[in-house]
Design brief:
alpha+beta; Fructose-1,6-Bisphosphatase, Chain A, domain 1; D-Maltodextrin-Binding Protein, domain 2; 5-stranded mixed β-sheet; 7 helices; 26% helix; 22% strand
Length: 290
């Protein structure tokens, strides 16, 4: 039965979509070794964001079909909206008024990792209100796990094959771990490497040896992350999960995150995520140095 977007709740949306997300997770894992690499996107200067595979397109198509069947009036923005046959059927790809939710999808977050056979890629679906995230679910097919958070309710982790109800409360590891610098953030490495182990994704990425991705802050691999922008569909979504898991998350200058409706190009500004307030102060201070 189809639902109106004005009456459906974020939980209803996730409960309805979860069986389809289970299918996409199994599909992504099954075809990874034989993945067909499509031409890179030409509208980005980020080599990691430029990667595109048939998995991205197929996963987005399945979720679009499921959404249109269950919630025909919903707003939806998928990463591959420009190549999708379904974009025109959604009411809008843009943010709406309060409680007129926008669902977003990153069908393969970490496509470069995925293409190179690494396991730390994710499928990320979000539900956005006009001011903030209402819910985020990030599935890690290679590990059969998912993280899910509803606004103000903390993060829960579950097993993909056991369903949404398998999720239990989860908090981040607060021990001393490396710091990840995202694309074009490597200039901060010298300012931090005297007291932290620093991973610069552009310098340290390898096809042969896996390094943590942004989701490593949720998986006990990282203590901090600094990225130059938090796209609603991926970096911003993972930052929301980190916040709900107890991390300190702000803009690079330490200021609070702006409301989503104040942002442009479907992204938050540069972000700092840290598992402690002490580390957060150190990262913000480094970002402010000239």
């Amino acid at each position: 039965m189809a639902h109106s977007s004005t009456t459906v709740s974020p939980r209803q949306i996730l409960e309805t979509l979860f069986p389809f997300l289970q299918g996409t997770a199994a599909y992504a894992q099954q075809i990874q070794a034989a993945i067909n690499v499509l031409p890179s996107k030409d509208n980005t200067d980020n080599p990691f964001a430029a990667a595109l595979t048939s998995a991205d397109l197929s996963i987005q198509t399945l979720i679009e079909v499921a959404l249109l069947g269950a919630f025909p009036d919903i707003r939806f923005y998928g990463e591959e909206y420009e190549q999708s046959y379904n974009t025109t059927y959604f009411r809008s790809i843009e943010l709406g008024e309060a409680d007129d939710y926008l669902v977003t999808l990153d069908p393969i977050d970490g496509t470069r990792f995925y293409m190179d056979g690494h396991p730390n890629y994710q499928i990320i679906l979000t539900i956005l209100n006009t001011d903030d995230y209402e819910a985020v679910i990030a599935l890690s097919p290679a590990y059969n796990t998912f993280d899910v958070a509803f606004r103000g309710q903390g993060v829960q982790r579950g097993k993909i094959d056991q369903g949404l109800s398998s999720a239990v409360p989860y908090q981040v590891d607060r021990t001393s771990l490396p710091i990840l610098l995202g694309t074009k953030m490597g200039y901060l490495a010298k300012k931090l490497s005297d007291r932290h182990t620093v991973i610069d994704v552009q310098q340290d990425y390898s096809r042969e040896t896996r390094i943590p991705n942004v989701n490593g802050i949720l998986n006990g691999e990282l203590s901090g992350v600094m990225i130059r922008a938090g796209k609603f569909i991926d970096g911003g979504a993972l930052a929301f999960l980190a916040r709900e898991a107890g991390c300190v998350v702000t803009c690079l200058d330490g200021s609070p995150l702006p409301p989503i409706h104040a942002c442009t190009d479907y992204q938050l500004p540069g972000l700092v995520m840290a598992t402690s307030s002490e580390l957060h102060r150190d990262l913000v201070a480094a970002a402010g140095q000239r």
